[in-house]
């Protein structure tokens, strides 16, 4: 069986190991969403990952609802991301851009108008805005014209990602954001071609993948899902049936890899998972499956060596351990992350975590 350190092919992207850096919002791109030298340093420090999946990156102003998160719709953003991809590649790394539309989770203060979603619903809890936390507002149901425009935004962002030097893209289809709002029935009460049956609810995800794959080639496309947890007010009454049918669609489209945020125990946010769906998807989907969510390296090793997944993506451990892959290989101690600096801006808690070699030398 493969180990964490066996190379892996994800479509057109060759990985030297199977420890991926999961997408991690860090809020360092400023109000215009333009990546910068500080971000380039942060990502380059973590280039030892088999693949870096970038922090969630807005495909449009309408779709970006997190303060200081980056985008991929403007020329300035493309140029900013070039700093990042050049830095990662100079360290021998690989990086894909995660494409993000937050749907009903975009507050009007950030998106510039009423948010759009699968249905006229309101997300629970509060939005992070520049004015502090504010209640979410009701979204309006996307019209066909909205869908067509958003699909064009996805295709443009994918082309921009390749122009910026990314090795590929990952569509964010998880965590209660727009693709997830169409997929799972708690947020989708439409009665047209995008609602009702599982096939109809999958339609928007299919069209997003077709748009992105048509723009840059499907061999450079992956997608992320969160099938077995309730996230930001989104869940499904029958996830097994939904994601098995989704597996058929992914196989038909020849999507080379998927990432499943699929915890097997209560998450750090308190979500209680249902049974994992990856075992049911596996017989119907021949692409690579990357498992994510609250895994430490012992979990990761067991998942890969046991054949439960092709790779594992790890998030928070990469925040405090830029050389995480080396530490896993050496079974070395880990740094602990400071949650107060996760979204605080600046270098503190971002690029100042020590490497193992620095700690040994000290």
Short description:
With 362 residues, the chain is α/β, with parallel strands linked by helices. Helix content is 33%, strand content 16%.
How is this structure best described in words?
The chain has a single domain (about 10-360), classed as TIM Barrel (Alpha-Beta Barrel). The model has no long low-confidence stretch (mean pLDDT about 95). The chain contains twelve helices and 14 strands. The strands form four sheets. It has an eight-stranded parallel β-barrel with strand order 3-4-5-10-11-12-13-14, surrounded by four helices. The chain has a two-stranded antiparallel sheet with strand order 1-2. A two-stranded parallel sheet has the order 6-9. Helix 1 packs parallel to helix 2, helix 4 (about 145-165) packs parallel to helix 6 (about 200-215) and helix 6 (about 200-215) runs parallel beside helix 7 (about 240-255). The longest helix has 20 residues, at about 145-165. The protein is of the alpha/beta class and about 350 residues long. It has helices at about 35-45, 75-90, 110, 145-165, 180-185, 200-215, 240-255, 280, 295-305, 315-320, 325-330, 355-360, and strands at about 10, 15, 20, 50-60, 95-100, 115, 125-130, 130-135, 140, 170, 220-225, 255-260, 290, 310-315.
